[in-house]
Amino acid sequence: MPPAQPWLWDPRVQQWVPNPQYRPPRGNKHLLVIIGVLVAAVVLVGGVLVYLLTSRHTCPTDTMWSDAQGRCVSAWIEPPPPTSSKPTAETCPPGTQWSEADGRCVPASTPAPKLTLTFTGLGPLRLGMTVAEAKAADPSVNVKQDQEEYGSDCYVGSNKDADLTFNPDGKLSYIAPLSKDVATQAGIKPGSSGTDVQAAYELVSTTYMPEGFSGIYVGPDGAEMEDGDEWPAIGIDFGDSGDPVGTDGAMDIASATVQGVYLEGGQVCFG
Predict the structure, then answer these.
(1) Where are the domains of the chain?
(2) Is residue 53 within a helix (H) or strand (E), and if so which, with residue range?
(3) Are 197 and 151 in contact (CB under 8 A)?
């Protein structure tokens, strides 16, 4: 009968187990201890590998390890934050805008066109128009005969943008913007400095006489009006805003501030 082996294969546990009938020779005792330690280490490493292969480190995509259930379970996916269905300036259709007051997209407001005082008129009004033509061009025109100041043949009034005067021949001859935001084509408006005017136009004068004439006239050629020049002209009023120079009451244009601008087509009803 062959000698008993130290290890037997156990099909129940599918591994080698010590043979209880084996009696090692006395000289192999230490060798058997070493072999036993090695076998235990192999078993331990195998157990660790099995754990890792079935743990959270190897859970499939969209799953996570559950310590409570000891297995991989469906992962919790944080839902995306709710999106607002409220339209914005970017989502309102073209030609509309979001209105907080109405809670919806409303037709976009169109800013009023910027008015410019030219040498021909202001907005739809033109020098030389009759009262009927001016009213047809701008229904807001409202004029009346001013018998007290100018005589029965003169008409004065306004529209939504300016004061107006019609000469005895019935034609529009004077337009004075009501808004201080209305500028000339050169950018001069109430609040502009005298140096702005000097830079915008070719001036003859460096001073003006507030007691007799508080401003200057500029013609379509961009130069200051002189005797004999033809109208129309844009008037630039400085009032008495400049520093006095000399002893004759003159004011320095460079130190002055524009108080108003207006358009004249020639002799205006009174003068």
Answers:
(1) 7-74, 87-112, 118-264
(2) helix 29-53
(3) no
What CATH fold (topology level) applies to the domain 118-264? Answer: protein yfey like fold (2.60.460)
∠ CA 109-163-238, nearest 5°, is 105
| pLDDT, tens digit, 9 for 90 and up, residues 204-219 | 888 888 766 688 999 9
Is pTM beyond 0.90? Reply is no
Residue 45 region by backbone torsions, left for phi larger than 0, else alpha for psi between -120 and 50, else beta = alpha
Q: Are 183 and 122 in contact (CB under 8 A)?
A: no
Radius of gyration of the chain (CA): 50
Residue 114 has pLDDT above 50, yes or no: yes
Torsion angle, alpha carbons of 68, 71, 74, 78, to 10: 50
CA dihedral for 93, 96, 99, 104, sign (positive or negative): negative
Tokens of 123: 């907005």
Considering only the C-alpha atoms of the chain, give the largest distance between any 2 of them, rounded to a whole number of Å: 155
Q: Do the Cβ atoms of 253 and 244 come closer than 8 Å?
A: no
